[in-house]
Design brief:
alpha/beta, TIM Barrel, 8-stranded parallel beta barrel, 3-stranded antiparallel sheet, about 40% helix
Amino acid sequence: MFISSCLSTNEKGHLAIDGVDVLSLAESHGTPLYCMSEKEIRKNCRSFTEALKSNYGEKAMAYYASKALNCKEILRIVGSENMGVDVVSGGELYTARSVNFPAEKIIFHGNNKTAPELTEAVDYGVGTIVVDNIFELELLNGICMAKSVTQGIMLRIKPGVEAHTHKFVMTGSIDSKFGFALENGEADEAVKAAVKLNNLKLIGIHCHIGSQIFEDEPFCEAARIMLRFLSKANKEYGAKISRLNLGGGFGIKYLDDDMFSPVSDMIASVARAIKDECAALGIELPFVILEPGRGIVGSAGI
């Protein structure tokens, strides 16, 4: 009857979340009221962390895309489940800082980060900043130079993969406003520039091909394209890229007839594609990162 396993009806015919009567919650706390299932959130976290460990051992990690729901308790929960967190604004970073989320387990995204936001991230010691454009690359290096620090970065790449989802949430195609394109050489020039900057350390490449993706092949194709670029960047441009971040976009059920593979199956399929491509290229398996958002909280609330 219910798409989410945390929802049910009780003996009174009332809706319940994790067995708690929703009517009693409304009477106790008033409305409007948002209710989240910690049990469901933890179950979803483990579906990613366990599948990653099964396929990659210690060479993978899931980061919660906090744009899906950014609040203190959610971040405490995902942190306790051995996940990192990705943030896209100073406000989201502030929330992470307010719960003492480990700075080294934070990835800072965003295609229009301000100088104050970048400065705050550097001052907090954020583990990785994902650079979205050449202007940000220069801005961030200047901030780090002034502080005499070195910042770990990833470059956001547009792999040219069109996920089978709504056009408004397709973000990996060539004409997307996010990141450096492979097709026209932008990505190559970004790597060449990054390796010359003394205060930035290029540790990885990142892509995000869209949202509500139900099939594994778009992820597999994106991974293959990104690995070829990773290999090229290291061999031809002197980069030392060791991390592959495939972003998020894992779909969840909204309707009974929504069909998609379980997270464990999708992760296993992508892992096979990554390992096969690494073998073909003759390169070491990189550290793999995924960034689920609604896949963690989407089924856990009303």
